[in-house]
Design goal:
Blueprint: H1 2-25, E1 29-32, E2 50-54, E3 58-62, E4 68-72, E5 83-87, H2 98-110, E6 114-119, H3 134-148, E7 160-165, H4 167-177, E8 196-200, H5 213-220, H6 226-231, E9 245-250, H7 259-270, E10 275-280, H8 299-309
Parallel strand pairs: 5-6, 5-7, 7-8, 8-9, 9-10
Antiparallel strand pairs: 1-4, 2-3, 4-6
Length: 313
């Protein structure tokens, strides 16, 4: 038990440092996801991106119209060639850009991984012809951007993953299962398939019995068809091409039922896709990198070990 306790203390110290100095650790480069016209966009000059603060100092981004990637390159002396696109959560109504975005990117840099925080469009009939498909369009293109620039950014094009938290986990799972779907017109042959996925307390299913209702309503509306529910339930869309997954959730999550993670794990396991599932006894929802006390705080070390075991890191 002593080594585990020691590693946990180290992680907590690193998290504290990140919280105190994330802005000075590295300066990200902001990249527009769409250089030309944004697919399926409706122009509405009155609809503008906003940053609100909850609990006094926690930033949440809403009303995204022009999606971006904030690129945090791994330090040259630590770079492994691995890259991860991060999708913050927020119920498809806002983005928890700090503890499920920026801080995660900075931590990934400490283990030699280049990170890209995706500020994706949040579903809205005011700015999208089809609000349900907008986030998936942004997610697919984000992977393509990283892969197209892999050589320039010192990234291995075969070691590009996607990570998502809560509703961002749903987006990450959708990109992992629908990467080959033509959801927007493009002229290049760059694959949108992630090489692996990391799903942290993810929304997986749109089935009303286990879904997160807010995410489902925001993405699909109040009365989606059975066909739509099936398409947007990632556990019902896995195939032999779905990438390996690392999944994390707490059993006492009162926001997103743990059955979501279990359903995705079982769907992958059924067809032989490598998958590792960690269900912690406690931790609730929205714990980000872990922090605090309890076994949930060890998931970043478990994730690093999984990457090493798979020969990715």
């Amino acid at each position: 038990m002593q080594p585990i306790r020691y590693e946990r203390q180290i992680l907590l110290a690193v998290l504290t440092l990140l919280i105190l100095s994330a802005s000075s650790f590295c300066q990200p480069k902001t990249i527009r996801v769409w250089e030309g016209s944004i697919p399926g966009a409706i122009e509405d000059p009155s609809y503008k991106s906003e940053t609100i603060y909850i609990d006094g100092n926690k930033p949440r981004i809403t009303k995204v119209t022009d999606p971006t990637l904030d690129f945090y390159p791994a330090p040259a002396d630590k770079a492994t060639g691995v890259a991860i696109v991060i999708c913050p959560g927020g119920g498809y109504g806002r983005l928890a850009i700090d503890h499920e975005g920026t801080l995660v990117a900075v931590w990934l840099n400490t283990i030699g991984i280049s990170a890209f925080v995706l500020t994706y469009r949040l579903p809205s009939d005011a700015i999208m012809v089809n609000k349900s498909i907008g986030p998936l369009q942004d997610g697919q293109e984000a992977i393509r951007i990283v892969r197209r620039h892999a050589k320039e950014w010192n990234i291995d094009p075969h070691k590009i993953g996607i990570m998502g938290f809560s509703a961002g986990g749903h987006l990450a799972a959708m990109v992992s299962t629908h990467f080959a779907d033509t959801v927007y017109q493009h002229s290049n042959t760059t694959s949108a398939r992630p090489d692996f996925s990391v799903l942290v307390y993810p929304v997986i299913s749109m089935d009303s019995t286990i879904t997160h209702r807010g995410s489902r309503d925001n993405l699909l509306g109040p009365a989606p068809s059975n066909e739509t529910v099936r398409y947007f339930s990632a556990d019902r869309s896995v195939s032999k091409e779905t990438p390996p997954a690392f999944i994390v959730q707490a059993a006492d999550d009162k926001t997103v039922p743990v059955q979501n993670s279990i359903a995705y794990f079982l769907a992958l396991e059924k067809i032989g896709i490598p998958c590792e599932l960690h269900i912690y006894e406690s931790g609730g929802h929205g714990f980000g990198l872990g922090g605090g006390t309890g076994t949930k705080s060890t998931w970043p070390q478990a994730f690093k070990a999984w990457l090493q075991a798979r020969g990715i890191l």
